[in-house]
């Protein structure tokens, strides 16, 4: 089955010579959730805006459902829903009319039952007669989400959808994302809440300085690049590392109350058994032992800083 979204060598340069996108190539399958991570200015929003037809690419190609975004703009754009970072709504219009108008823009027939369902899921039904200017910032964000869903898109872009919003909206948003995925909608998410990406994404893409560093299954990425840490808590603190433990590459932390040992889960031997034997030989008494798996955030920081293997 061909990818629902196919991006080939996509580039965007400006007159001043700045390259916002540097040959991005990416296939996104129907029904998957891709989390696109990157620091501020990495190119996330430029990539989304280009696919959605807001920015014209300098070169390369993009197809959505087989439709080229330049040659078949209307067909391609009709398949896309976009929740942008910025809140840009008509302040004097009601919630209901705002969402209904957005559906009409895409030539969709009237479907009040569908719109009611969307508004109810976003806790907006009781606000449907309110003007946009009467809503809080979080409620306006909900309206943006409702607008994006109003024409039943097959591909949904969420550009920092929960930035600066309340916990309730974030919960509602991820419930809707789960339902959309179950119905076959493809979701591309950018977020600064990396724990959200770790919780819901199927694949993770990391972009930095306009270039796509990698795209990989989340579990495979964490297994391939993740490390574990063993924290050995001691019954009594030590001032300096014992000589018998010097070759283990340990860190002395918490004022000498604990030792941190980092190891690679891919190795045949982790060295933990030898370490614990040497700890006992050094006369240190263990109070507790804990392990910690590298998070997606740890891996992301290593990738964009160039420290990843």
Automatic annotation (TrEMBL):
Residues 5-234 form the ABC transporter domain. The lineage of its organism: Bacteria, Pseudomonadati, Pseudomonadota, Alphaproteobacteria, Rhodobacterales. GO terms for molecular function: ATP binding; ATP hydrolysis activity. Gene3D superfamilies: P-loop containing nucleotide triphosphate hydrolases. It comes from the Bacteria. Keywords: ATP-binding, Nucleotide-binding, Transport. The keyword ATP-binding applies. This is ABC transporter ATP-binding protein. It holds the Pfam family ABC_tran. SUPFAM superfamilies: P-loop containing nucleoside triphosphate hydrolases. It comes from Parasedimentitalea marina.
